[in-house]
Amino acid sequence: MTEMTLGEAARLTGGHLVGDGSRIIRGVCSPDEAREDMLCVIWDKNVLAMIPPGVPVLSPTGALAGHDGIELDTPRASLVALMPYFDRRIDDPPGIHGSSVVHASSSIGEACVIGPGCVVSEGASLGSRVILQANVFIGKNVIIGDDVRIEAGAALQDFVEIGSRAVIHSGAAIGCEGFGFVPGDNGSWKKIPQTGTVIIGDDVEIGPNTTIDRATFGATKIGRGTKIGACVHVAHNCDVGPDSMMVGFVAIGGSVRTGRGLLAAGMSGIADHVIIGDGVTIAGRAGVTKDVGDGVTVSGFPAQEHSSEKRFQSSLRRVRDYGERIKNIERVLGEK
């Protein structure tokens, strides 16, 4: 089992050590699972009261009292350095599993792991240290950069390009056909061929069961450093700016353009052809139907500037009171 001293954890995170730095910790835990050989992480000083004595704590600065532990101004950020040390995932050694099918014309970089049941198609190119877990499909002429991790059951269709250090979680489907149909005769639908591709930048993370559609022509693009949660849908010909974040169940319509640093909260959506500026925040369940300028926070449906939406919602809550007042007035007038 991986372990370290509390003092080593303090040095690793850059935090302030409180108490016995020689005590051993064997992992990180939440307050609900607190125990003496684990470092219990709290974000709120008020939670400390529920932690049993003797449990070491990682906490905001000034919170520790009666516990060994580590204090930091931003304890959540310290997990970036601390958690990899206790990561229990074990990858297979480099090599190609005997049950995988790798086309002779494909290019496989150094120290790649190709797990059981994978398919690497004609003309595909994998950089160095790429990990394909079980049953990953790599289509024809796909290009994958260095240090990419693709988890079990993900699929990359033909001509997709993935930058370096990307993470693609289980069940993600990248480069499937965009949803393009036009009305035909007698109420039928005619399919528009989707002949483009998807280009994913460096350091992008794509959540499980997320779908990113190939463009009708050209490319659907996901900018460098963008993080996408589970069950997100990015439609054809979208261009998502760098360092954006989309939480679970976000849906983005076709040909949407977003700037740098979009933050789209859970279950929000953007209609087709909308242009979003830099630094925009879309609140949970909001539906954006028109362009949004730089730095604006929007909420509601149809989405509007957040302060305006709050005033609107507040006025709606007063409607019931107004209704009761009107009934009372009518009753009084009726009695007269």
List the helices and strands and how they pair.
Blueprint: E1 4-5, H1 6-13, E2 16-18, E3 24-25, E4 28-29, E5 39-41, E6 57-60, E7 69-72, H2 75-82, E8 95-96, E9 101-102, E10 107-108, E11 113-114, E12 119-120, E13 125-126, E14 131-132, E15 137-138, E16 143-144, E17 149-150, E18 155-156, E19 161-162, E20 167-168, E21 173-176, E22 181-183, E23 189-191, E24 197-200, E25 205-206, E26 211-213, E27 219-222, E28 227-228, E29 233-234, E30 239-240, E31 245-246, E32 251-252, E33 257-258, E34 263-264, E35 269-270, E36 275-276, E37 281-282, E38 287-288, E39 297-299, E40 304-305, H3 306-335
Parallel strand pairs: 4-5, 5-6, 6-7, 8-11, 9-12, 10-13, 11-14, 12-15, 13-16, 14-17, 15-18, 16-19, 17-20, 18-21, 19-24, 20-25, 21-26, 24-27, 25-28, 26-29, 27-30, 28-31, 29-32, 31-34, 32-35, 33-36, 34-37, 35-38, 37-39
Antiparallel strand pairs: 1-3, 2-7, 22-23, 39-40
Estimate the helix proportion, in percent.
Answer: 10-25%
Instruction: Name the CATH class of the largest domain.
Output: Mainly Beta
Strand content: 25-35%
Gyration radius (Cα, Å) is 26 Å
Supply database-style keywords.
336 residues, Udp-n-acetylmuramoylalanyl-d-glutamate--2,6- Diaminopimelate Ligase, Chain: A, domain 1, 14% helix, twelve-stranded mixed beta sheet, 2 domains, UDP N-Acetylglucosamine Acyltransferase, domain 1, alpha/beta, flat, 29% strand, ten-stranded parallel beta sheet
Describe what you observe in this structure.
The protein is an alpha/beta fold and 336 residues long. The chain has 2 domains: 4-86, MurE/MurF, N-terminal domain (Udp-n-acetylmuramoylalanyl-d-glutamate--2,6- Diaminopimelate Ligase, Chain: A, domain 1, 3-Layer(aba) Sandwich), CATH 3.40.1390.10; 95-306, UDP N-Acetylglucosamine Acyltransferase, domain 1, CATH 2.160.10. Helices cover 14% and strands 29% of the residues. It has 3 helices and 40 strands. The strands form 7 sheets. A 12-stranded mixed β-sheet has the order 8-11-14-17-20-25-28-31-34-37-39-40. A 10-stranded parallel β-sheet has the order 9-12-15-18-21-26-29-32-35-38, with no helix packed on it. A hairpin with a 4-residue loop joins strand 39 and strand 40. The longest helix has 30 residues, at 306-335.
